[in-house]
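User: Please look over both lines:
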Amino acid sequence: MDENLKKEDEKPPKNRELDRTDRDILNILSQNARTKLTQISKKIGLSVDSIKKRIMKLERSGIITKYTIQVNTGIIGLPLGVHIYVKFKNFNQSRFEEFIKYLRASPRVIDLMSMAGDYDLYIVILAAGTEDIEKKKNEIRQNFSDIIGDWKEVLVTRLHKLEEYKF
């Protein structure tokens, strides 16, 4: 990750008001993070240098934290996305940290979030098929049965919108 971008363990910056130009830059980059500065400059009507300075300021202020891609996982043999909600029992901080470390290390786990509400953790796992997902789920549940109280899962059948930001 670029050293200018926000690190996961840093405290979030204070709220910052975005002007129309910054919002336009964010909208362009959210559609294609590889858009050339010259293209952004033409669309917005500012010099390339001004656009570059604004993007750097958005990075330094923690508004832009990462440049990424979206992968068509079906084409690479992982067409299933299973969303799992976990409720803990017998909570133990060290076991929780082991669980998180285990899940973070798995290349099939693409999203992992603590949450407030009926469930404590949200996980998204990619799988090649139903046997593949059953194997991964069973592995997780057996290794961490001492802290997993409730487990709810939802299989995504079709994406209609995914992380599409408009500012």
Remarks:
- The mean pLDDT is 90.
- The radius of gyration is 20 Å.
